[in-house]
Structures are given as structure tokens and as C-alpha cells.
Design brief:
The complex is a heterodimer of chains A (193) and B (379). Chain A is α/β, with parallel strands linked by helices and 193 residues long. Helix content of chain A is 32%, strand content 24%. The radius of gyration of chain A is 16 Å and the shape is globular. Chain B is built from ten helices and ten strands. The chains are: A alpha/beta (193), B alpha/beta (379).
């Protein structure tokens, strides 16, 4: 995760908010948010090594399987639910988006933009894209549901999720304003039900 | 574990408490003893103490061995010791035999100071709350105002949870392993079968078998055999014993034939030799009674509101007596109170017994968590 990514997410989170980070990895984002925004943060993670890493990093981590949903959490029990670079690796894409907007007042979703020009170029030259944001070989990738900005926004319409704000950044971490679906490598959406 | 060693020789200690000790049942003890062990060194700030609470059949002898008895290894020796997840090079660890026990603390097999006779059936029922209050007396005696952590598995997990409610300011962390917020009807059912096995043993004599110089051995054996079946998973038993016969072929007799029969009888015999039947009855009743949400109309979130500690909750995938779902209930109630909590669900085939077994992931979780606690208390 790059710094501008963290900063963009932090901007949308009020001080002291109760935050749930779905797929929290080693807890980097929550560590950042605890320092920058004094959030009361919880992460969900399934991989044992990452659970241990989160614990080591002083992050509240709950070992659970996101694919089975967030049924253990009450409606609106969090201010913000974050799905950072996890959406593309989920089987139950639609279900988790609906569930995060049930559990949180707001959701933040980040994902690598498959429409980024370098990805398009690689497909045009006849190979599956590989980049810093998507470093995997096509036959060995956790990313099973890659999408573009346009695809994600159309899914938001389908599930009646409202996009409040959107930030798109390029590989240098700079904000992209013109032709975001072509020029941006990472998308960060702020959504609500 | 890296560079982990055994504690070596340890020595139990005893403390006597005078003055009335009010029990939840309404009964009162005029005095009582607790036996305990300590490992490691209490730091100058007295901030690095960890209390280990034992489960149904556990004792104060958590780790190390006794002088001259190399087979007397403590029940959680794999977890507690120098360089182990509960690192005695950094923490001062306290193990205590609970009130009502049969390993030295005052219990049914102790003499009643009022009469000079053994308590037997006259020993009052004790609860998890009573144990926690007695443990707090021990903490006072050791001049420990606040534990860095209180930790336990199974019934021990219930004590760790109760500590966070009875003495919210006296612990930094509660480590709740293979626990539950209360027993299910099925669990109480198992306990009742075990108790009936003991009570209906002709050698039970209404709990006063000491006077007859016998013990309800058959009942204790049955109770333990049943317990062992429920502590393991179906898979673990199949893996360990399968359908193996001791002989080459069936003998069409009621003698021990299958490996599992042999194992259960051995465990039953061993237990009947070392454990007091009245203590077993009292401890299983304490399990049954534990239910912090009983006073909040079943709402665990409200029941846990007094807690201030930080929590580590751990469950095991094949534990069906204290299943992961029961730990989820605890985690949810802690979340509802915006408390600090981490939760790990350990993949294991060992059933409820998994909390006593070495497992790389399990030990990494506890080790990483306590590493943080150690930094916090500058141990």
C-alpha cells in the first residue's frame, strides 16, 4: 500500500471513528488510522500469518472468513467499513459490498483499476497485465474479480450504493483528474447505502 | 519455540486467609488456604504478573517439575516457561489451585476447622466468581495490585472473563482460550451424566466416603471417560485410535478390545487415583452456574459493559464442547462495548483438548500478543 492511498482513506474518516477494515493484512492501514485519526479500529483477516502480524503490530484483528459475510455484526455498528484492495480477491463481491453498507454508515472501497492504460496496453499486445498494483501471474493470482472504474460504478448502481466521493491515483501516488479510468492505477471510493 | 527451555524445578507454596469469605451461594468460609506456584521474577514496578487460571481438572502446578520427580511436569508446561509464549524470563507467572480443589487448597477433602472433620459433602458450592475473589486475595498477598494479564483455557477462560467483570481495574489483558459465555444445555447434560456416575456409585456415601476409607472410583472413572470423549473430536479419535484392536481379531468378550477402550479406561483409572470426587462435582457445578448474562436478561453485551481490559479470544475449529461460535458471542459482546479485542480461530483436529496442545499458529498468536503486553509493562 502506498502512502497517498492511506492518506486519501484517512481524509474520509472522522477523528475517533469506529472502523472495520475487511482484509486488514498485517494491519498497516489500521495502524496508520490509529495514529492519524485515533480511530477505534478492528480488522478482519483469514490468513494465520497475517493475523499474527496484526497482533504483533498492535492492531485488533478478528480471524473470520469474509466470504461468509458479516452476519456477526449488527446494522450500523461501525462508522466506516473499509475494503482496501480486497474486493478483487473476493468470490462474494456483491454480497460483501451490500453487507459492508449494512454494518457501516459509510464504506470505503479501494481496488486496482483494470482500465489503467498500461493494463490495456498489455492486453493489446496480447498478454495479461502485470504491474506493481497487480504483481501476479494470471495462473497464480488471488485476484479473481478485477474491474475498471466504470465496472465498479455500474455495480454500485445495481446494488443501489451511492458514490459520495472518488479519488483516483496513478502509480506515482498523484491524484488523477483527467480520464481517470485510463490514467488511474488505483481507485478509492467512498460509498453509502 | 525458539530457545525455549523448561523451568526446571518448581516448588508449591501455601497461603492461609483468616476472616469470613462470603460465597455467592450464601455460604461462608471462616478461613481457607490456597496453594500456588510462581515462576519468573516480579519486576520493581510489580507490573509484569500473569495469573493462569486452571480448568476443570487442573492445578496450581502449571509448569516445571518437582524435585526428584521428572514425570511431574506441569499441565501447561509447553505454554509457560523461559522463551515460551508465556515467557517466564519476562513475566512473573502465578498458578493457583482453586477453592474447592483437591491439590492443597481448601476443598471437600480438607478438614473443616470448626469440627476437625473432613468437609466432604458439607463443603459449600463455589462459583467462578468466588474463585476470582479468592484469587484476588492471593494477588493482595503477593502485593500485586494489577495483573498484566489473566489467562486460562476452558473453565480457566471463564475465570479470565470474570476477572474483567469483577476487578476491571486489576488486569490489563484477559486471554480467553477455548471459552464460552456460559454452558449450553448439552454441556450441562454431559456434566450431569458425569455427576450421576459419581453420586450413584455405592462407594460415594453421600459425599462422605472418606470416613469409609473408600473412593467412588467407578463413578470417577466413568465421569472422566465421558469427559475425554467430549474433549476430543471424532476425527482426532479416529486418527489416534481408529478401529484398532489390541489383539489380531475380535475375541467376542467384554474385555478391553479396541484401542479407544484401552485409552479411556487408562485415563479413567489415572484420574480416579488423583482426583477427589467431591471436587469434581463442585467444579462441574461451577461450570454449569457460570453465566455473566444471567443478571442482564441474557444480554451478554450489557453483562460485559463493566470490562475495561483488552482481550485476546482464541478458539479451535474442532472444539465442539466450547465451539468457535461461543467465542464469537464473546467477541461480539466485546465489540458492542468498543473494547480492544483480537480473535484467532485455530485450525486443529484436537477438539477441546487443543488448548493444551502445542500448535505453531496457536503459540504464535499467544506469543505475539504477550510480546505486546510485555512491551506495555516494560517487562
Amino acid at each position: 500500500m502506498i502512502r497517498s492511498d492511506l492518506a486519501a482513506i484517512a481524509r474520509w474518516i472522522p477523528n475517533g471513528a469506529k472502523v472495520l477494515d475487511l482484509g486488514c493484512g498485517d494491519g498497516q492501514l489500521l495502524t496508520y488510522l490509529q495514529q492519524a485519526k485515533q480511530v477505534s479500529g478492528y480488522g478482519i483477516e483469514i490468513e494465520p500469518e497475517r493475523v499474527v502480524a496484526s497482533i504483533r503490530n498492535g492492531v485488533n484483528v478478528l480471524q473470520m472468513n469474509l466470504e461468509t459475510g458479516l452476519s456477526g455484526f449488527d446494522d450500523h455498528s461501525f462508522d466506516t467499513v473499509i475494503l482496501s484492495q480486497t474486493l478483487q480477491a473476493m468470490k462474494q463481491t456483491e454480497a460483501i459490498l451490500r453487507d459492508m453498507l449494512r454494518v457501516g454508515h459509510e464504506g470505503i472501497v479501494t481496488f486496482p483499476n483494470f482500465g489503467f492504460w498500461k493494463n490495456r496496453l498489455q492486453v493489446m499486445t496480447g498478454t495479461m497485465p502485470k504491474s506493481e498494483a497487480m504483481p501476479y501471474e494470471w495462473y497464480d493470482t488471488p485476484n479473481i474479480h478485477l474491474c475498471t472504474l466504470a465496472d465498479f460504478e455500474s455495480l454500485c448502481q445495481t446494488i443501489r450504493a451511492q458514490v459520495i466521493e472518488r479519488v483516483v491515483i496513478n502509480p506515482n501516488g498523484r491524484r488523477v483528474n483527467a480520464f481517470p479510468n485510463l490514467m488511474g492505477s488505483l481507485a478509492i471510493y467512498r460509498i453509502r447505502a | 519455540m525458539k530457545n525455549s527451555r523448561s523451568l526446571g524445578t518448581v516448588t508449591p507454596q501455601r497461603v492461609h486467609f483468616d476472616g469470613p469469605f462470603q460465597l455467592i451461594s450464601g455460604a461462608r468460609l471462616e478461613q481457607f488456604d490456597l496453594v500456588y506456584e510462581t515462576y519468573g521474577r516480579l519486576n520493581a514496578a510489580r507490573s509484569n504478573a500473569i495469573l493462569i487460571c486452571h480448568a476443570l481438572s487442573g492445578t496450581h502446578h502449571v509448569a516445571g517439575t518437582y524435585q526428584g520427580d521428572p514425570h511431574s511436569t506441569g499441565w501447561w508446561d509447553n505454554m509457560v516457561g523461559p522463551g515460551k509464549p508465556v515467557d517466564t524470563d519476562r513475566f512473573f507467572v502465578v498458578g493457583v489451585n482453586n477453592l474447592g480443589g483437591c491439590n492443597g487448597s481448601t476443598g471437600p477433602s480438607s478438614a473443616d476447622p470448626a469440627t476437625g472433620r473432613l468437609f466432604g459433602a458439607r463443603f459449600p458450592f463455589v462459583t467462578v466468581e468466588d474463585w476470582v475473589h479468592a484469587q484476588a486475595r492471593l494477588a493482595d498477598h503477593l502485593n500485586i495490585q494489577r495483573f498484566a494479564a489473566v489467562m486460562g483455557g476452558s473453565l480457566g477462560a471463564m475465570q479470565a472473563l470474570q476477572w474483567s467483570l469483577s476487578y476491571p481495574a486489576r488486569l490489563g489483558h484477559a486471554i480467553v482460550i477455548a471459552g464460552a459465555p456460559n454452558l449450553s444445555a448439552q454441556n450441562i447434560g454431559f456434566n450431569e451424566v458425569a455427576r450421576q456416575a459419581i453420586i450413584t456409585d455405592p462407594d460415594f456415601y453421600g459425599g462422605d466416603y472418606y470416613a469409609h476409607a473408600v473412593i467412588p472410583e467407578r463413578g470417577l472413572r466413568l465421569a472422566r471417560m465421558l469427559g475425554h470423549i467430549t474433549y476430543l473430536s471424532d476425527d482426532a479419535m479416529m486418527e489416534k485410535f481408529g478401529r484398532e484392536l489390541l489383539a489380531d481379531k475380535p475375541r467376542f468378550s467384554l474385555e478391553v478390545e479396541f484401542e479407544i477402550e484401552s485409552y479411556l479406561r487408562y485415563q479413567g483409572d489415572k484420574f480416579a487415583e488423583r482426583f477427589d470426587a467431591n471436587t469434581y462435582l463442585i467444579m462441574t457445578k461451577a461450570l454449569d452456574y457460570f453465566d455473566p448474562a444471567a443478571s442482564t436478561e441474557g444480554n451478554l453485551s450489557i453483562a460485559l459493559a463493566p470490562a475495561k481490559a483488552q482481550f485476546l479470544v482464541v478458539s479451535f475449529t474442532t472444539d465442539w464442547r466450547f465451539s468457535p461460535a461461543r467465542s464469537h458471542e464473546i467477541v461480539k459482546a466485546l465489540l458492542d462495548n468498543s473494547l480492544t479485542v483480537s480473535y484467532a480461530e485455530i485450525e486443529s483436529t484436537q477438539g477441546h483438548d487443543a488448548f493444551l496442545m502445542e500448535n505453531e499458529y496457536y503459540f504464535s498468536v499467544v506469543g505475539a500478543y504477550l510480546e505486546r503486553v510485555a512491551r506495555e509493562v516494560e517487562a
